[in-house]
Amino acid sequence: MERIKIEQADKRSVSVMVHPNSFSARDCLKVGKKDYTYFSLPNAEAAGLTNLARLPYCLKVLVENALRHEDGDMVTADTIGAFARWTKTATHPAEISFFPTRLMLHDVSGIPLLTDLAAMREHVVKIGGEPDAVNPIRPVDFIMDHSVTVDAHGVRDALARNMETEYSRNRERYRVTRWAQGAFHNMRVLPPGKGICHQINLEALSQVVWSEDHPDLGLLAFPDSLLACDSHTPMINALGILGWGVGAIEALSAMLGEPVSMVLPDVVEVRLTGRLREGTTTTDLVLNLTRRLREHGVVQKFVEFTGPGLDHLTLPERATLANMAPEYGASVAFFPIDDETLNFLRLTGRDCQVPLVEAYAKVQGLWRDDNVARIYTDAIMFDLSQVEVSLAGPKLPQSQVPLHEVHRSALAVVGEAPTDTGAGRLRDGDIVIAAITSCTNTSNPSVMVAAGLLAAKAWARGLKPKPWVKTSLSPGSRTVGDYLNGAGLMEPLEAMGFHVTGYGCMTCCGGSGDLFGDIAKQITEGGLNAAAVLSGNRNFEGRIHPQVSLAYLASPPLVIAYALLGTIVADITTEPLGENSDGTAVYLRDIWPSGHEIADAVARHVTRDVFVARYADIADSDDLWDGIDAGDGGT
C-alpha cells in the first residue's frame, strides 16, 4: 500500500497525516510547462469505486475531496466507498467530512469570528505562547459589504455621503477588522465600498481549479471550493465551484483546518431546454424557477443544472439562478464547467487560469457532457421558452406572479382599489421604495444594461418617477458602475433618480434607510399598505422596511418602470407610465428595450478591460479605511 504524507495546514502550523491512497488515485497532470499532482477520479473508479463516471458533477467534487484527504481515520476507504454505494439507489445516509479550499466572510457574520480568534490569541499569550501561533489554516477573504444603508439618495454624491455615514456608525466594529487585516496571516480584507461578497467572489476571487505547493506532493491541483457565512454563497456554483453557506461555528472550524461533517446529499437534476423568449429576462426565469422548485420540493438537497438550455445562458445568467438557491430551498445549485465557464474567466481577466481549468475538468470528468446518463435522485424538466415576465410577491420569493396579474395580487391584500386622497397624500398600494439592488441581479450585465436603456427611453420622453418613491441603485460590484458609465447609461439612470447609493448589500437585506419626508407618518396614521419593488432575492414582510407590507421582486428594468407608475395596484401592462411633452400617454411597451439593443450594448461595453482595471488591486484601500487606527499589536 502506497503511503504518502499529506500536509493539512499552511507553513506556520503543520499537521501531518499518512495517506493510504487506497484507490490508487494519485496521478500527474501536465499543463503547459507545469506538472501537477492530482487525485484522479478515473483511476479511483478503475480501482474499485464503481460508477464514479455517472455521478452528478457536484458529488464528483466531494469524491475528489475525500480521496485527497484520506487518512485512515477521519476519512477512510469505507467513507469513500459510500459514493459508490450512493449510485445504487441515488441516495445514501453516509456521513462524510468535507474540507473546503477557502472561506469567505462578510462583516455581519465575520466580525464575531474575528473576536473568537482574538480570544484564542489572548489565551495563547496567557499560557506563555506567541499570539502569531493562531492563524487561519485555509485562505480567508473578509469582505465588508453588509453595513451600508440608503440614507442619501437621488443626488450625485449619495455614494460618498453614505460611505461616510457607514464609517461613522461602524467605526468601532471596523477597528476590529482593520486590526485583523494586519494581525492575521492567510486573511485578505476588502474594505467597504468594493461591492457584495458573492459578486466579487464570482468576478475576481474564484479560481475554479485551485493549485498550491505541497512539501511532499509538489504542485497540487484540486477543485476550488468554498464555505461562507451567508445563505447566498451558492451563487458561485455557476462557475462549477462547490460552495454553500454555513453557520459561524462551522466556518471557524473550517478556517482552522477542521472538516465540516455532512450527510451525502440527494441530488436533483434540473434539465433545461429551449431558450428565453424576446422580452423576458433572467430575473423572470429565476422567479418562475423558484416557484417550480418550491412546489417540487428540493429543501436541503443539491440541485444540478443540465441540458441544452445551458447553451443559451451566459455565466452571469447562471449565477442569477444559483444565487436564489436558498429561496427555492436547495443547499447547492451546481452548474458543470464548460466553454461558457472559460469565456467568463477570460472576460474577467483570469486568462491564466483557463488552461488548468480546462485540462483538469476534462481529465476528471467534470467537463459538461450532456451525453452521459448520470444518476440523480430525482429529475425536473424546465422549458426556458415557457417563462413569462413576472414579479414575486407580495410577501414570499416563491410567490411568482405574471406581470399582468401583479396588481390583482396586491389588491387581494389591499382590498378595493384606492381612491384619490388629495394632492400629496399616499394611498394604499403606492410604491414608496424602488431599488435596483442585490447581487442576484446586479451581477448580470444584461438586466443592468436593460435598466439603463429603459431609463434612457423614459428620459427621452420626459418621464419621471412619482415623487413619493424612494429610488436607489446599489450594484454588487464597482464594475457595474464602470460599464454603465462607459455605455452612457448612468446619466439617464440618474435622471430617473437611480443614483449609485453604495456598492454593497443594501435594500435587499433591509438597509433601505428612512422613507421620504412624512411618508412614514402617513403610512402609520392611515394604516396604509405601502409597497416596495426591488431587484433582490427576499421580500418577507418587514424585511425591506418595517413600514412596507407589500414587497415585490422584479428585474432591474421593471423596478424603474414601477417607480414611474408609482403604484402596485394598477396594471402596468395597460396603464400609462406617464405622458410625454405633447401629452401623449407613454406605456411600458414604448420604452422596453429589445433583446438586440441589450446584447449590442453588453458586447460593446462589458469588456475584459473593465474587469482588469477594476480588480488590478482588489484589496486597495481609501482614506476612510486608512484613517481607522487599529493599533499594531498581535492581540
Write the layout of secondary structure elements.
Blueprint: E1 4-7, E2 16-19, E3 26-31, E4 34-39, H1 41-46, H2 57-68, H3 77-89, E5 95-98, E6 102-106, H4 107-126, E7 140-143, H5 158-183, E8 187-190, H6 197-205, E9 209-214, E10 218-223, E11 225-228, E12 242-245, H7 248-255, E13 260-263, E14 267-273, H8 282-296, E15 302-306, H9 315-323, H10 325-328, E16 332-334, H11 339-347, H12 354-364, E17 378-383, E18 390-392, E19 400-402, H13 406-414, E20 431-436, H14 439-442, H15 445-460, E21 470-473, H16 478-486, H17 490-495, H18 519-526, E22 530-534, E23 548-553, H19 556-565, E24 578-579, E25 585-586, H20 588-591, H21 595-605, H22 608-614, H23 623-626
Parallel strand pairs: 6-7, 6-11, 7-8, 11-12, 14-15, 14-17, 15-16, 20-21, 20-22, 22-23
Antiparallel strand pairs: 1-2, 3-4, 5-13, 9-10, 18-19, 24-25
Please explain how this structure is put together.
The protein has 635 residues and is of the alpha/beta class. It contains 23 helices and 25 strands. The strands form nine sheets. It has a five-stranded parallel β-sheet with strand order 8-7-6-11-12. The two termini are 46 Å apart.
Summarize the structure.
36% of the residues lie in helices and 18% in strands. It has 635 residues and is an alpha/beta fold. The radius of gyration is 25 Å and the shape is globular.
Q: Approximately what portion of the residues adopt beta-strand conformation?
A: 15-25%
Integer average pLDDT: 94
By helix and strand content, what is the structural category? alpha/beta
The major beta sheet can be summarized as: 5 strands, parallel
Distance between the termini: 46 Å
Helix content: 25-40%
Strand order of the largest sheet: 8-7-6-11-12
Extended strand count? 25
Determine the number of helices (DSSP H or I, runs of at least 4 residues).
Answer: 23
Q: Name the assembly state.
A: single chain
**Low-pLDDT segments, ≥5 res:** 1-15
